Amino acid sequence: MDRNSALAATSGNGTDVAPAASAGSPARNGGIDALRAAVTLLVVLHHAAITYGASGGWYYREVAPSASPGGILLILFCATNQAWFMGLFFLLAGTYTPDALRRHGAWGFIRSRLLRLGIPLLAYVFLLHPVTVALAQTAQGRSFVHVLLYLFEHGKFEPGPLWFVEALLIFTAAWLLWRSVGGAAPSAAGGRFPSDTTLLAAALLTGAGAFLLRLAWPVGETVAFLQLGYFSSYVVLFAAGCMAADGAWLERIPQASRVLWLRVAAGVFPILPAVVLLAPHFPLPAGSSDGGWSIQALTYAFWEPFVAWGVILGLLGLFQRRFAHLTGMWRRLARRAFLIYIIHPPMLVGTALAWRDIPAPALVKFAVTGSVACALCYLAAGLLLRLPGFAKVV
């Protein structure tokens, strides 16, 4: 593929956002469009897993985390996702940023970002978040209307999953500031994909950064609605995306590197659960994997990038081999992906509440609720995009 196709996962009006890009423009990278769409659905399933027993924060939790077989599987599912899936979105967003800035100019770029990111963020904060909270509180016997009014009266507004958009606006502003003061665009090393030694150094740097950040802000602790403990990988991957743009790195991943890092990820994967289970039985600094001076926290911080590099490189290669161009449902899913990301919280919570009184194993409920919520989000997004003005924003 040529250089343009590496930057072509953009919406029809020329705005480049991950995961917001739509299908339909010429010379698109179908593999990246399909991957972004698939990972958006994985976000829905991730939150469904939290609903039924995985660790993490979410609006509605029906099953608490436990050491049951189903609970352990859901916890591992979410821990693995967390290592890479939001980082992938930041990588893609960074990849599209330099070209968008060149094409639109500084002011056009700012207007575009405020339209395509700012409006969805405000809509979620002031509408979808209160609606989702009020919906979830009906499980506790509280009135939907009373909770909704309380939230508005007391200004209880949050970005929920659109923390990603908040962070992306911050990263984009930092990129603009860097360029405005004369900072040079990072070199793409003549178009060559980074060496495995460079990727190793980046993984070690990312792990060290995560460990240090979590000494101050453990996993689960937020600052301005952002879990800074995860931001080491987000910053590194966004910066890597900006560096990758001109060299079309995402389309030039060497097969040897993909294979090597997939093997690294597979080899590293069992280390975290093993350390979490065994560390308390050895004379080592023990504690939570969420942060602090403990072997669990140190392992978790370095485990994440080594898993992430392998999964991200592997999926980028797989999807680009599989999808040269998108047709049919994949094309529609790619166009609806960002809107699905925005609307999925109330859809998922409503789906879970609809059958919460029906007994079933947690894994069954996870599979059914997650699948139904994905289907409903897909259909609802298609309907919303037909409304006047929606397509210009999402």
UniProtKB/TrEMBL annotation:
Region (Disordered): 1-25
Highest taxon above the source species: Bacteria
Entry keyword annotation includes Electron transport: no
UniProt KW keywords: Membrane, Transmembrane, Transmembrane helix
Domain Acyltransferase: 30-380
Cross-referenced InterPro entries: Acyl_transf_3_dom (IPR002656), Glucan_succinyl_AcylTrfase (IPR050623)
Bilayer-spanning residue ranges: 38-60, 72-93, 114-140, 160-178, 199-217, 229-248, 260-280, 300-318, 338-356, 362-385
PANTHER family (alphabetical): BLR4337 PROTEIN, BLR5718 PROTEIN
Protein name according to UniProt: Peptidoglycan/LPS O-acetylase OafA/YrhL
Organism: Labrys wisconsinensis
Lineage per the UniProt record: Bacteria, Pseudomonadati, Pseudomonadota, Alphaproteobacteria, Hyphomicrobiales
